[in-house]
Specification:
There is one protein chain. Helix content is 62%, strand content 0%. With 107 residues, the chain is mainly alpha-helical. The longest helix is centred in the last third of the chain and has 20 residues. The mean pLDDT is 92.
């Protein structure tokens, strides 16, 4: 299933570029206007088939591709240490990081 936010933005963009209202798009896609509204609001995550059908009704084609994610190996160096921590120690460390970030934002 597509990500709710991505699906919402994608559908709204396609509908607007097509110059259609939610009601017009729904009628052309043979669904209810409320379905289009819930997707665009991010209240629901459409299936690939539903999103594809709605985008096609707006005059667009949905396609997917793969993109390799490159992770800096240095980011993983601390993982073994973190895994050795108890749940309490992890919470304490997360709290310290949170306070550090909050303080850094105030500067």
């Amino acid at each position: 299933m597509p990500n709710r936010v991505a699906a919402a933005e994608l559908l709204a963009l396609a509908r607007e570029r097509a110059g259609m209202s939610q009601r017009e798009l729904a009628r052309k896609a043979r669904t209810a206007q409320s379905v289009v509204a819930r997707i665009e609001l991010g209240d629901t995550s459409p299936s690939w088939a539903t999103l594809s059908r709605l985008l096609q009704a707006a005059g667009f084609v949905l396609s997917a591709g793969l993109k390799r994610i490159h992770v800096d190996p240095a980011l993983l160096d601390d993982v073994p240490r973190i895994l050795r921590l108890t749940p309490e120690e992890r919470l304490r460390e997360a709290g310290q990081v949170s306070r550090f970030i909050a303080a850094a934002r105030r500067v």
